[in-house]
Design goal:
With 350 residues, the chain is of the alpha/beta class. It has eleven helices and 19 strands. α4 packs across α5 and α4 crosses α10. Bound molecules: zinc ion (2 copies). The site of one zinc ion has 6 residues, from α4.
Length: 350
């Protein structure tokens, strides 16, 4: 197992280059994965455009790094202590490397482990490379039913499963999804497959709203021309909807999430803000007694996302709009960053 392999390195805002490395060797407890597909995530765009996400800056946090956390591939070797059965299996990558020992890990809340590292952030090279090593316990065997494209959607879908868990959404109830990016659309898919009614989806991009309609939204609204709070209020019998999923992270959606929730409604905030400071109108949120729940990534939900995708035949392939070889990574990032060419989810095939 010798020879050079390529990786994509994010050096600074809007500068991503290819670079050669030798194939890494799996250490004890690790698997060596040949990466076949990596999704370009909206969260990657914060680092790509601004060189930071949520106050973590490339330079302060460990310098140039390999991005990519929505990945799948084939295990080619394993380190000491890992069953050889894993070799040759197709796996999806769970990107949160939690410590497994702190009170939160022990309580089953690995997503808020204060000692975790996350794949594809400074200090923890991600999956945009031909080979990577990863803890074997976080390589989830996936079988053959899903395509490599569909597998990159498991990570965003796992976030959507966790968002529904956090919200405590139960079948049949109506919901509003603010934002029709891959996360909002994943939430929509889960809601639609479990019989939510009505399901209202908003976005500023009509092509994404069209996809939302095809995926099961009962109503779509574009805030650039629709009065979203008035429309949602009406749909909710004059009161709004009992569940709101905010999947944008902008000021306008923060206002809409409060305005559109019914009294005693539950608002799950999944979107990541570029500015890191967002406000919402306090009086209506207080008068309605809203329950605001922050959603951080996923929490042991990758396997459930996989089961859900298989058993309900979720149309995850519909999300994939573009493919790129690793050599065109900058083109892929620019496209997602500009929401160009009708992009929903781009897949890079290293
Ligand atoms: Zn992501
Ligand atoms: Zn922990």
């Amino acid at each position: 197992m010798r020879g050079a392999v390529q990786q994509a390195l994010l050096k600074a805002a809007e500068s991503i280059v290819l670079d050669d490395r030798s194939i890494p060797q799996p250490r004890a407890g690790e698997a060596l994965v040949r990466i076949r597909s990596v999704g370009v995530c909206g969260s990657d765009m914060h680092m790509y455009r601004f060189g930071q996400i949520g106050g973590i800056r490339i330079d302060d946090a460990g310098g140039p790094f390999v991005p990519g956390h929505e990945a799948a591939g084939i295990v080619e070797a394993v380190g000491e202590g890992v069953s050889a059965d894993l070799v040759g299996r197709r796996v999806a990558i769970e990107p949160t490397i939690n410590c497994g020992q702190c009170p939160w890990c022990l309580a089953g809340q690995a997503n808020v482990c204060p000692h975790h590292t996350f794949l594809g952030l400074p200090g923890c090279d991600g999956a945009l490379r031909q080979y990577m090593t990863h803890p074997a316990r976080l390589c989830v065997p996936v079988g053959d039913e899903l395509t490599d494209d569909e597998l990159v959607m498991l990570e965003p879908l796992a976030i959507a499963v966790h968002a529904l868990d956090r919200a405590g959404w139960a079948g049949g109830q109506g919901a509003l999804v603010l934002g029709a990016g891959p996360i909002g659309l994943s939430i929509l898919c889960l809601l639609a497959s479990a019989g939510a009614d009505p399901i209202v989806v908003t976005d500023k991009l009509d092509y994404r709203l069209n996809l939302a309609s095809e995926l099961g939204a009962t109503c779509t609204l574009n805030p650039t021309r629709d009065d979203v709070p008035a429309a949602v209020k009406k749909i909710g019998g004059g009161y709004g909807l009992p569940f709101v999923f905010e999947a944008v992270g902008e000021q306008q959606t923060f206002e809409h999430m409060v305005a559109c929730a019914a009294p005693a409604g539950i608002v799950a905030v999944v979107g990541i803000s570029a500015s890191d400071h967002l406000g919402f109108p306090h009086a209506p949120a207080r008068r309605k007694g809203l329950d605001l729940r922050m959603v951080r990534r996923s929490n042991h939900t990758l396997e459930r996302a996989l089961r859900w995708a298989k058993s309900r035949h979720l149309p995850l392939g519909r999300f994939i709009t573009h493919h790129y070889p690793l050599a065109d990574v900058q083109k892929a990032y620019d496209q997602v960053s500009r929401y160009a060419d009708g992009v929903v989810k781009s897949v890079i095939q290293p």
